[in-house]
Specification:
single chain; about 70 residues; mainly alpha; Helix Hairpins; 4 helices
Length: about 70
Amino acid sequence: MSPNVDDEFYNRADSFINLANKHGEAIGRGKVSASFMFAQARYAAWVSACDFSSGAQMGAAKAEITSYFLE
């Protein structure tokens, strides 16, 4: 983990995990994990899109964005 994380980094992560655990009590860990990963991927895509002023600009950077997430 990068030494440059802010003071609330782990508290935010723990809050997401606690919410997932609460959902897991009702539906099961596997389904919660799938929902969690889907939500994170959607959020990451949205955050990436916010850095561009157009779809064409984002499309031109597709390889760079994909490489970032795969690393």
